[in-house]
Design a protein that fits this description.
Shape: globular
Helix content: 25-40%
Oligomer: single chain
Structural class: alpha/beta
CATH architecture of the largest domain: 3-Layer(aba) Sandwich
Strand order of the largest sheet: 2-1-3-10-4
Radius of gyration: 19 Å
CATH topology of the largest domain: D-Maltodextrin-Binding Protein, domain 2
Length: 314
Amino acid sequence: MKKVVIVGSRDSELALTQTRYIIGRLQKHFPEIDFLIKEIKTEGDKILDVALAKIGDKGLFVKEIENALLSEEIDFAVHSIKDVPTALPAGLKIGAIPEREDPRDCYIAKNGKTGLLAAPQGAIIGTSSLRRSAQLLHHRPDLRIVPVRGNLNTRFRKLAEQEMDGLILAYAGVYRLGWVAKITETLPTDKFLPAVGQGALGIETREDDAFTNQLVAVLNHPPTAAAVTAERAFLRRLEGGCQVPIGAHGRFEGEQLVLDGMVASLTGSTILRDQLCGDAADAVTLGKELAAVLIGRGAAELLIQVRQEFEANG
């Protein structure tokens, strides 16, 4: 009789596509194991009429899945790691971070042709991300930002039905669902830093489950793991999340791990951005040091101001 391993996943089309991808890769290494998916609806999937920044982000898309993991209803979980808080519940760990997809944001124009920065004066752009809107307004303060939530199918439908000129989305999600042809432009990281962990998947496990940890470890991609670790250390030092406009991008240039990070005001009028390089083994230190550089330039005060302004605007 084959051993059965239960895999937890959000029930969205993208999440299930990503989970099936991970299972497919594991199946090649372990054909003797049956992997079954347990679909779990998270709080973030249930609340679709409120911006994420208004309801907080402490595990909105992972808490219910982590509870299932802790209660041993599932053996491991597949997440978009940008949804995973930097502090995990006691007893859980990130067992593997597979090779990352393109971490950049992309722009989908309703007309399919006009690039983001070439959009008409006063164009309406859909995004619920404070990070995206801040960077966009920094370059184009004339643009109007409208919140758009829901899965990718829902967002594309809203683009077609509502008064909107375009959407900003994560390239990786659009790619994984096979919709690259819809992309008008992939946004350069010198102007638009992605979210921490964007494009990467995280496989979450129980620390004491030696069998499962050994199983998923075959998918770990050390360069991606180092880059994402540095980004998450940067975010954790800044105590940031969906409520604040923070972006980061870690990657290797030769043997060096290069990390860019930024903190912005809500309007994008102020953007603090810097870059540090280091060794992969020092990924956590690199992230913390880059955060300290920005804190030294006023990031802590800026983040306090951002939170106050956001709360005041309700």
